[in-house]
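Proteins fold reproducibly. Consider a sample protein:
=====
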Amino acid sequence: MLTNGMRPGFWCECWTQNLEAQEARPALRASFDAYSPPQADRWVAVALRTISPALDPEASDEAWVWLYQGRIATRHALLRGEPCTVAVTHGTTRITWTIRPVLFLPLAHRQGAELPACAYDFKPHASS
């Protein structure tokens, strides 16, 4: 059984990258599915508030500038259906949050669903 239709939302990710390592690829650290612009930017805001005491002064300043000024622009962009990026650099590590509008597809589940008749025709082989 499928749930009703596709649901609009936002796919949020947090990536880190070592800026000193040659050919260092970004590493995915976390992801989150949000169903509204406030929920999406709140995920980034909570993360930034949580880590800001551990950041160096410049990175902490970047975080608080976004929290006090950039968050409004991010929310407006999300309301227009535009993707957004928030990033801070702590020492040699770049931390980047991305938020992209998506359509979440319904998932099939078996609760309350009848299996097709052929499912009951299967007989496991007996061990010899």
